[in-house]
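Final report, Chapter 2: Outcomes

The project's central promise was a pipeline that accepts a single protein chain and returns its three-dimensional structure in a standardized token representation, suitable for archiving and comparison. That pipeline is now operational. To close this chapter, we reproduce one record exactly as it appears in the project archive, with the input sequence first and the structure output second.
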Amino acid sequence: MALGEIVSSLTKKGQIDQAMQLFNSIRRNDEKGMALAQVAKNLVSVGQYDQAIKLVNNTFKIEYEPLRVLGTLAKSLAQAGQIDKALQVANTTQLSEHKPSVLSDIVKSLAEAGNYEEALRIADTDEVKTHKQEALVNIAYQLASSVKIDLALQVANRLDGFYKASVLGAIASNLAKTGQFNQAIRLVETIKNDPLKALALARLAENLTEANQLEQVLQVAKKIEYGSMEKESLMSSLAFSFARVGEFDRALQLASISKRSQTKAEILHSIARSLAQAGQYDRAKKVASTLDFNKDLALVDIAASLAEAGKIADAVQIVSNLDERGMFPDQRFSDAVMVLIKQRKYEPALRMANTIRDESQKAWTLAWLANELIKVGQTELASRAIKPALEIVGFKPIVRP
């Protein structure tokens, strides 16, 4: 463990004096800067605001990088609701060069806390300068997510180009979430620039759950000029969205027109995974078989879905037949276990792990699985995972006489 990490750990335990003694033994300035920033952040997290400021003021040197240390302190204070103290830090001489960036972070924290009036006041000061658009975007995002649509639109109208399109897409998404899809689509259509309209439509499509709404987005998308990178990205986003809502034919149709092989592979992988999750295993395998990139990973996802459904034998057969077995023939079994853990399918994950044939791979996977199961409180399953792992490596438990 690096000294900086030990310093941070001591701070979390409240052992400040010991932490700072160890801090003074660190030689490299960049490591000292990272350690001091973490100490300040930890103190703020437990409500010791004045101590954090005092400690940094007494310890900081310009060689530790102002933005790393003072910027972290100001941001942490702002996130804790200590706006006056955050502004006090932002106004220090050492941060003058980075002040616009730090103030933008403070604006974001204010907006996240719902203090839009103060956020706008700071964003409108001359000191924000080059970060003004970024600051206004953060305010608009928070207003949109709070469904304060009129205010969000007022802020959006102060933005330019990409920023405005992105915010309008976010506002449209939140309108759609509240059942105002027609207003959402009309809002996006007000964007005159085709590439920017494509970006906003993609943002809208990401959160739609109804196929008929995606169809309307697709119809608007078709009016956008062909050949643009943004339109390609939009069509890809729509393909993912159609797959997500179970409209596989439409998703495959959009995948077929993708001009980039890597993008097409990602779409087809997503479709194969969604088909498997819908129980359409044969069709999922057929789609996966067309992949040039990541075919084995797509098949692992299908195997994980089969295992989740209790079809362990079918899952094992898929993984066993993979072409790209390489030097580690059972690595893909481990991959399937990891996919299942991410999906919180603990029992199928354990059953899949127990099918691994290579003993060293099996022991590693079972040990990893036991650790993950303990993290989520699945102690009984964890004990079932670790026991065979220990047996494989020759561990003999000590029995009390």
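Archive annotation: The domain at 272-401 is CATH 1.25.40 (Serine Threonine Protein Phosphatase 5, Tetratricopeptide repeat).
This record, like all others produced under the grant, will remain available to the consortium after the project formally closes.
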